[in-house]
Structures are given as structure tokens and as C-alpha cells.
Amino acid sequence: MRKNLVAGNWKMNLTYQDGLALVSEITHMVADEVSGANVEVVICPPFPLLHSVGRLLTEGGRIHLGAQNCHQQDSGAFTGEVSARLLQSVGVEYVILGHSERRQYFHEDDALLSQKLKAVLAAGLKPIFCVGETLETREAGETFSHLGKQLKDGLFHLSNEEFDQVTIAYEPIWAIGTGKTATSAQAQEVHAFIREQIARAYDAEAAQNTTILYGGSANAQNARELFSQPDVDGGLIGGAALKSRDFTEIIKSF
Ligand SMILES: O=C[C@H](O)COP(=O)(O)O
């Protein structure tokens, strides 16, 4: 039985103080309101907040810590970078890899992401691997070939055991931060396609066990409808993860 998951990606938002205030509100709301829900929750703050947010999450109990990126090497002269091993040592469990913003603004390609995946897995962390198409690609009718290639080149080189640790996030780039959400039917269509590709690359069991998240202007209003789709197992939440009430309502949408 695959798990449902809601991951909040804070991106490059908030100060240290604002971040701690937000996470404290979220832990209280989740503790009070979400006790029985069948969902794992992850919060991915910027690097300088990881340790302190992690401590609050440990005290609060049931929310896991994630990072937004890491370097592919274990250590060394890579000024400004952060290794998976360091992330693991501050209590991180998940790492987002291949977010469309990393691909677009930092030119991360499938070859680099393959190395990052290996580093994350070697450190005992769980990757949240993102794929998604631009509006141009969708309108050209190339969504599925594009996603198929991202999965094949970026992800499907992993062994079965390594792949077991992976969560996939589908992010229609045209829906990120735009307020334009994919319809639940559009999301379901792509998620089913991704699951089918997993079955081909690995097997039916791996496909059934893989958690596939939707990311792209998911919010407290549309989460229930999106999460009710058979192949949508949760969300990678940007803007709405910065508001404790909205994020909690999204978690409660299962
Ligand atoms: O990582 C999160 C996704 O990019 C979605 O962001 P958004 O919810 O602000 O559209």
C-alpha cells in the first residue's frame, strides 16, 4: 500500500524568525486537527532553517524534514554547496531533486540529476524527484513524450531497491505559482501515465507502490478534488505551504 504525502516547499521565502513561527503554528494545528489522517507530512525550508525547523518537528512529533536541493559530491571544495551527507546529519529525511526552478534557473539536466539522486540515496535520504512540462510543450502535444524522457533519462537508471525510496512529483510548469491549476482529470491522466512508465521500467508492484505527488497551485480549495483521483497520492505545495491554515487544510484533504 503506497503512502499519501503532502510536502511543503518553502522555496526562497521567509526569514529565520518567520520560518520558525510558521512551523510552530503548523505543528500545533497538525497535532490538534490531523491525528488520524492517512498522510505523511514533509516541510522543506531553505538550508539555514533546516536544523532549527527539524528540532521543532522532532518535538512536535509527526512531520518530517526535507531539503530543496543538494550537491552531487560527498564533500570537498564546492563553495556555497551542501552535501546530502551534511543534510542527513542535521536530520533531513527527504530531498527535492529536479524541481523545475532548479532545471530552469540553474540548468540542472538529467545527467546531473542522476548523480544527485545517487548521492541522496547513498546518504540514506529519500528523493522527491520532479518532472513536468511547459505550456509550450503541452500545447505542442508533447507532454507524454517529454515526461517519458525525463523519467527515463533522470530516474529509471536506478536499481529496483533504489527506486523503492523515490517519490515522484508531477509539476505542470504552467501551473506553478500561477494560480492556474491542472484540472483533476489532467492531473490524473499524467499520473496514470507516470505509473504506467514505472510498470514498464520496473514492474507492476513498483508502479503500485510509488507515491506520485501533484504540484502546481494546489491549495486548500482544490486539494480534496485533486487528491481524490486514484493516481494522485498527495501534493508538493509551494505558495499555500507558507500559510499554516491553508497547509493544514491541504493535509486534512485526505
Ligand atoms: O514546489 C512546489 C511547486 O513548485 C508548486 O508551487 P505552487 O504551489 O506555488 O504553485
SSE layout and pairings?
Layout (H helix, E strand, L loop, with lengths): L4 E5 L6 H18 L6 E5 L5 H11 L2 E5 L16 H6 L4 E4 L2 H6 L4 H13 L3 E6 L3 H5 L3 H12 L5 H4 L3 E4 L13 H18 L2 H6 L2 E3 L8 H5 L6 E4 L6 H8 L3
Parallel strand pairs: 1-2, 1-8, 2-3, 3-4, 4-5, 5-6, 6-7
The structure holds glyceraldehyde-3-phosphate.
Q: What's a quick, concise take on this entry?
A:
This protein is an alpha/beta fold.
Secondary-structure element series: EHEHEHEHHEHHHEHHEHEH
- Low-confidence blocks of residues: none
Name the CATH superfamily assignment: Aldolase class I
Q: Please state the overall shape, judged from the principal axes of the Cα atoms.
A: globular
Strand order of the largest sheet: 7-6-5-4-3-2-1-8
Bound molecules: glyceraldehyde-3-phosphate
Computed CA radius of gyration, to the nearest angstrom: 17 Å
Number of strands: 8
Share of residues in helices: 40-55%
- How many separate structural domains? 1
Indicate the CATH class.
Alpha Beta
What is the overall number of helices? 12
Instruction: Profile the largest sheet.
Output: 8 strands, parallel
Query: Proportion of β residues?
Result: 5-15%
Summed over residues and divided by their number, the pLDDT gives a mean of: 95
Gap from first CA to last CA: 15 Å
Do you know the CATH topology? Answer: TIM Barrel
Helix and strand content put the structural class at: alpha/beta
